User: What shape does this take?
Amino acid sequence: MTDKTDYVPPKVWTWDKASGGTFANINRPIAGATHEKALPIGKHPLQLYSLGTPNGQKVTIMLEELLALGVAGAEYDAWLIKISDGDQFGSGFVEVNPNSKIPALMDRSGPTPIRIFESGAILMHLAEKFGAFLPAEPAARAETFSWLFWQMGSAPFLGGGFGHFYAYAPAKFEYPINRYAMEVKRQLDVLDRRLADNEFISGKDYSIADMAIWPWYGGLVKGWQYGAAEFLSVQGYSNVMRWADQLLARPAVARGRKVNRTSGDLSGQLHERHDAGDFDTRTQDKLVEAKT
Ligand SMILES: N[C@@H](CCC(=O)N[C@@H](CS)C(=O)NCC(=O)O)C(=O)O
Assistant: This one.
């Protein structure tokens, strides 16, 4: 180990605002709104407040898949929440998600609007509401939920653990990078073994479990996350690679990846989505221009 430290924790922890690292400016030890700001409401039954990170993509992929199936009730407005500007701490957003994290959804299709936060809960809400991408048969349904919740429990080790220390921490520390690289490789191996015998995560059918897992672990093996593909030798997980490519070839997945995305190639960004026509290049350029 190269990162010996003489740090001795004090008796009582206090907040060091200048702790360093990417995102240090938005991290706080307290919850709640920092400012008054109402959320916009568009014309569709579903109002999504999000950003095109892996957690955000899960929901936009699901919505685009539902629309591809012809589910008209899944029409949505996707509003951009810029987390690096602190939009998640606006009063309107906190009313939809008291945890101040994207994605957050308002289902305005009924007489009383319903708020849903946590990407897994949003996927379940949409799957149950529209009877899609969630098997009805008990064993397959249980398998889908098991993998959906596997993702919710596992991804923080990939994002908050490995990604943070490998890409965002103010310095490279060997101990946490080793610890989380080992865990992420173990998780990739879990998926690789599962996908060796199954076309999709929960079995023979494409489901919300695939939609939850793909943006994180598919993105990792495609080299989109933290520039860590070589470091983690991702090419060794050939079944995960096969599945990642198979999902990427789905037009709805490709569309869902673009919504609320503000980084990477401009052609892969659609900052806000209010209509299927927004994916047209011309409209998209206009939206990108308007927001930047
Ligand atoms: N468990 C949550 C995680 C959501 C999450 O971590 N969102 C991040 C962006 S990917 C966020 O909004 N961060 C803002 C912040 O921490 O202030 C989910 O799956 O919805």
Notes: Residues 138-255 form a domain with the Glutathione S-transferase Yfyf (Class Pi); Chain A, domain 2 fold (CATH 1.20.1050.10). The pocket of glutathione is lined by residues 26, 53, 55, 83, 88, 100-103, 118-119 (CB under 6 Å). The longest strand covers residues 46-50.
